[in-house]
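I am sending you the entry underneath: sequence plus fold tokens. Let me know what the token row says about the fold:
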Amino acid sequence: MKRKSIILLTIVGIIGLCIGIIFYVWNANQKEKEAANYALYAEYYNASDVLHLDMYTREYERTGNPHDIELTPTDLTYDLLQRWEAITEVIPMIDYPEEAIELEDWLNVYNTFASNRFDAEDASKEITKRGGE
């Protein structure tokens, strides 16, 4: 009788430990997924802010999936893109993502814009330096 109780308690303990481990792993995955979704949402938000895009989140609010966010260009977006294209004609070291713009891949456009920031600043300093001479 005592031996059966010990075996039963051991089995219950092992099952409880397995359930605990499964819950821990599931919870860690959920947190990781939430962090990735938040980072993607932040990227959409930053892209909409920097590129003057309208950001529609109705579907995202329903599903919680940041890929359901829609970014739509505005007149300010097109003005920015025209200036950017004109600058790249004068300063070829700055990338202009023409294909991404045509495909309306606004996250790619935003990432290109952000990666050009330092080149644009360097070019601006060089132009300013040459203008002062």
